[in-house]
């Protein structure tokens, strides 16, 4: 009987990202923290004074809480969301990738490689018919074909890629609900 080895989560941790259970929080999130997170997820440039007015805290209290949540990794990034069409990469592809079963150790190499690939926006390690799902943006199908050829040639542990072309984004966001 052949044993299928599952990779440890450690072997597939993306640089700068980790799982929720690993956060070393100095204190649990209270309702003020949750309210602050809800607000800054929608507008990370909102002034602390405005946030404080909305939730009943002083600006300095909001700033302290934001600083703590950044230091603890609860807030992992504050970014600008760029219109793909204006940036010249109007097409989005969802690529499901199958990994060679006996080559899970190569996931660490893939993780390092994919972190440097700007067209590959997100990668998820999943259950189901594929092992990884990637969100890839490109100028056109030709550029996507070049990206997948590069994935396959530089990552021999990827044995097959199943592609879905996004016809229209119905919802695009990164908001994480914080209310219990």
UniProtKB/TrEMBL annotation:
One of its GO terms (molecular function) is sequence-specific DNA binding. It comes from the Bacteria. Coiled coil: none annotated. Residues 29-90 form the HTH asnC-type domain. Keywords: DNA-binding, Transcription, Transcription regulation. One of its GO terms (cellular component) is cytosol. The keyword Nucleotide-binding does not apply. InterPro entries: AsnC-type_HTH_dom, Dimeric_a/b-barrel, Tscrpt_reg_AsnC-like, Tscrpt_reg_AsnC/Lrp_C, WH-like_DNA-bd_sf, WH_DNA-bd_sf. Pfam families: AsnC_trans_reg, HTH_AsnC-type. GO terms for biological process: response to amino acid. This is DNA-binding Lrp family transcriptional regulator. It comes from Rhizobium giardinii.
